[in-house]
Design goal:
Blueprint (H helix, E strand, L loop, with lengths): L4 H24 L4 E5 L12 E3 L4 E3 L2 E3 L15 H37 L2 H44 L3 E5 L1 H36 L1
Antiparallel strand pairs: 1-2, 1-5, 2-3, 3-4
Helix pairs in contact: 1-2, 1-4, 2-3, 3-4
Length: about 210
């Protein structure tokens, strides 16, 4: 079965739109990291379980929107390890929104290059999507490293006994970011194939 140019660019467009939607939903939700407390370690009236996003923490049903702000923090009262983590957080909240904005422009570039049926424009747009996927990958990978370092620092401060009744895990918001990354890659690959198809179509009359 032969895959046509139209099918390729439509599939690339759908993947690109989904990647934008998934990344936007990921950034707008606060289920990146989940902390669950064992009920036997607290009273019935106390709920210390929490889930957090990139800019806010929901703890015990209460939202703390200013809990994570690495740009306005007073760096003088933090240790070297904490300063390193704040720097990582700053990089995360720059890379991922930047990738989201670039995806929007990537969709416009993809539409123009598809209508023009230009191999050069299609290849350039594919490379553009690969850059977006790289930014998303860096942001998500940094967040995972940041989370593990934060857990290690907490363990150092309170000891293993203090975390005996604490269960931590990554949430579905992070999963959406990974899905977005995968779809960005697929979009780029499909556009590269579409560019190849157009190039072959342009060359076929001269070969006849």
């Amino acid at each position: 079965m032969r895959v046509t140019f139209g099918c390729l660019v439509i599939a690339a467009g759908i993947c690109g739109a989904l990647s934008f939607a998934f990344l936007a939903a990921s950034l707008g939700t606060d289920y990146w990291y989940i902390i669950e407390m064992n009920p036997m370690n607290m009273s019935d009236s106390e709920d210390m379980s929490s889930h957090s996003g990139l800019w806010s923490i929901n703890e015990g049903g209460k939202m703390y929107a200013d809990s994570i702000d690495s740009f306005t923090a007073d760096y003088s009262k933090y240790s070297e390890t904490e300063l390193h983590m704040l720097s990582m957080h700053s990089a995360i909240v720059v890379l991922l929104p930047l990738s989201l904005v670039l995806l929007l422009f990537g969709g416009i570039c993809g539409l123009v290059s598809s209508l023009a049926r230009s191999p050069a424009l299609l290849t350039g747009t594919a490379s553009y999507f690969f850059i977006c996927s790289l930014l998303t990958l860096c942001g998500v990978s940094l967040y995972i490293i940041y989370s593990y370092q934060a857990l290690a620092e907490t363990e150092r401060l309170v000891g293993l006994e203090g975390l005996a009744y604490v269960h931590t895990s990554f949430g579905w918001s992070l999963g959406l970011a990974w899905l977005s990354y995968s779809l960005e890659l697929i979009s780029g690959i499909l556009l590269l194939i579409a560019a190849r198809v157009v190039k072959l179509q342009h060359n076929s009359p001269s070969m006849a």
